[in-house]
From TrEMBL:
The keyword Metal-binding is annotated on this UniProt entry: yes
Top-level taxonomy: Bacteria, Bacillati, Chloroflexota, Ktedonobacteria, Ktedonobacterales
Organism: Thermosporothrix hazakensis
Keyword presence, Metal-binding: yes
UvrA DNA-binding domain: residues covered: 13-70
Name of the protein described by the UniProt record: Excinuclease ABC subunit A
Gene3D superfamilies: ABC transporter ATPase domain-like
InterPro entries: UvrA_DNA-bd
Alphabetic keyword roster: Metal-binding, Zinc
Name of a matching Pfam family: UvrA_DNA-bind
GO molecular function per UniProt: metal ion binding
Length: 86
């Protein structure tokens, strides 16, 4: 995330959040979401909306998704964290 005048940047290190890039997002590729096939959640709905927007699928292995999916998923996660700590 760009600095907005507070001299702070929010960044997400892929190595810390991608559990297994050969797995699909729905199968637990992203550490903080876990196996999304086993649960329906607000986060799953957000990720499905992002995938639909970028015309891709959460069924694909993480490593096959477009780069912009990482940025969008990261922003989704940062927003989710910010709501949680308020």
């Amino acid at each position: 995330m760009e600095c907005n005048g507070l001299d702070v940047r929010l960044e997400v290190d892929p190595a810390l959040i991608v559990e297994d890039p050969t797995r699909a997002v729905l199968d637990g590729a992203l550490r903080w979401y876990g196996d999304l096939r086993k649960k329906m959640s607000f986060a799953r709905g957000e990720l499905e909306s992002i995938a639909q927007h970028y015309q891709t699928s959460l069924e694909l292995p993480w490593q096959e998704l477009p780069e912009r999916m990482f940025s969008a998923c990261s922003m989704c996660f940062i927003g989710w964290l910010m709501r949680a700590i308020r």
